[in-house]
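Recall that a protein's primary structure is simply its ordered list of amino acids. Everything else, from secondary elements to tertiary packing, is in principle encoded there. The following example makes that idea concrete.
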Amino acid sequence: MNGTPLLILHGWGSNSGRWQRVTDLLRKQEIEALVLDLPGFGIVSSPKRPWTRDDYINWIFQKAKERNWEKFNLLGHSFGGGLSVKIAVAFPEKVEKLILCAPAIIRRKRLKTYLFYQLAHIGKKIFSFPGLKKLEPYAQRLIYKLAGSRDYYVADGVMKETMKKLGDENLEDLLAKIKAPTLIIWGKKDDVLPLRDAQELKEKIEGAELKIISEVKHSPHREAPEELAEIISQFVK
């Protein structure tokens, strides 16, 4: 081991390459940061069947075992944040400290989501008429974009079903069970997950700290890698 171990789990649609600048900076601080391309992203192909979070967690632990990491710090961004919460609760003996970077955990019934399902239902009927079928892919792309569901649109069949499985699981009840020291990081201008989610997480996780990065949206690892790396380093070390 070359330094303090830190396992980073990226968000949906992301990959390890997008964290390269952050990991380079962390290594200079003697933090051995490992970002895995999760199955279905980056250079790792999609699973043969739709996966649950437990499937992802089993895969993640196999990779940690290959590094001989008995205990490690854990950072999860967005989708990776949900995985990290479940790991921290199910395997508290493995997680030294927990960092949640704009994690996708709080579930809200949003008007955009309701409109998305209504438009999708209506559109399916409209584009079944002769002559309109060829326009369906363009209409779908627009609807998914407006609903903030581009990730679902671009996913292949297995990953679409995986998203559905993941969406059925409630992670909020796990928050009060987190025992590891926890840091929550959020972009002040996050346009994917609202800042109020950060405050709610802080209230539900005992002793959690909250760092808000100004002028940053949902991807601080790309928008402010130097500041993010410094925050991570101070917390971990």
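Residues 111-162 form one domain. The chain has two domains: 4-107+170-236, 111-162.
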